[in-house]
Specification:
About 45% of the residues lie in helices and about 25% in strands. The chain starts with a helix and ends in a 9-residue tail after the last helix. The strands form 3 sheets. Strands 3, 4, 5, 6, 7, 10, 11 and 12 form an 8-stranded mixed β-sheet that branches. A two-stranded antiparallel sheet has the order 1-2. The protein has a two-stranded parallel sheet with strand order 8-9. The protein contains 10 helices and 12 strands.
């Protein structure tokens, strides 16, 4: 491990002299340690140049291995430290409003029972804003609807829901997307991820949505549907937000069927901790409970 550290220091500094100064050791001693490592591996690892030193092909391969070894070692040390301490501090979770309404009470209660000395902060917002918060480092974990792939985030799909047509008037059991597009609709306003998903399905087919009203809140959308203003397209679980005495009518959309993705995302650059791992696991359980196949509401 120590010789690997010396090797990485030279490779990253690009110079034996600079690495020796950073390591507070003599350059001949450092050169001897690298030579010993080359004997152990059976490969020439560094080539001296007029400007310093650079890894050979074998050295480049070993450099990647070394970095992985050091990362695993640091994770092991961090895990051992965590086991000696009572986790404290604050962790921030981002939730879309509909998810926050369904899950926050259970989530905070169970988190506090597991980590009484830690604090949890729940931030509500549209998926696109929560994704920005993850990338900027303001959020530790977030639940997102239909996020695009990102090299900066680890994204796990935990549940998928079919979109349905909801109305206060009778509907057939199934309805084609082309027929949905011809109806007057009240929908969440852009850049809502559900609206973007629906638009991505209708535009390539040459359909045009007949949107008569746009609002941000799903509850407000449903209240307008309950008053008979127009129908709407939402995930099936949104029926749990319905507050009118008379239940809504729902029709499964087909040709094509449209399904959203409910995902958990964490920044790749942020090291996992005992607290963050528990929060991800708890969030996953609650997402499956509320939005998994077993949680799908039945049509009235």
């Amino acid at each position: 491990m120590r010789r690997l550290e010396y090797f990485v220091a030279v490779a990253e500094a690009g110079s034996f002299s600079k690495a020796a100064a950073a390591l507070v050791m003599s350059q001949p001693a450092l050169s001897q340690q690298i030579a010993t490592l080359e004997q152990e591996t059976g490969h020439r690892l560094l080539t001296r140049t007029g400007r310093g030193a650079e890894p050979t092909a074998a050295g480049t391969a070993l450099l990647e291995h070394a970095r992985g070894i050091f990362e695993l070692a640091e994770r092991a040390r961090a895990d051992m430290r965590e086991r000696q301490l009572v986790p404290s501090g604050r962790i921030t979770l981002g939730l879309p409003p509909r998810v926050a309404h369904a899950m926050t009470a259970d989530l905070v209660e169970r988190f506090r029972a597991e980590f009484p000395d830690a604090a949890i902060s729940v931030e509500e917002g549209l998926s696109i804003r929560l994704r920005e918060g993850l990338v900027a480092g303001r959020l530790d974990v977030a639940v997102l609807f239909d996020p695009p792939a990102s090299p900066l985030l680890d994204i796990e799909t935990v549940a998928r829901e079919s979109l349905v047509l909801m109305s206060s008037s009778p509907l057939p059991a199934r309805i084609r997307l082309a027929d949905v597009a011809a109806l007057p609709l009240v929908l969440p306003s852009k850049p809502n991820s559900l609206r973007q998903l629906l638009e991505s399905e209708v535009k390539p087919r040459g359909y045009r949505l007949q949107v008569v009203a746009e609002v941000e809140s799903i509850k407000t959308v449903l209240s307008l549907v309950a008053r008979g203003v127009a129908a709407t397209v939402l995930p099936a679980s949104a029926v749990h937000e319905w507050t009118d005495a008379a239940p809504p009518f729902m029709a499964a959309i087909h040709a094509p069927q449209i399904r959203n993705r409910l995902c958990i995302a964490v920044p790749k650059a942020r090291p996992a901790t005992r607290v963050s791992r528990f929060l991800v696991q708890l969030t996953r359980q609650l997402c499956l409970q509320h939005y998994g196949e077993a949680a799908r509401p039945r049509q009235p």
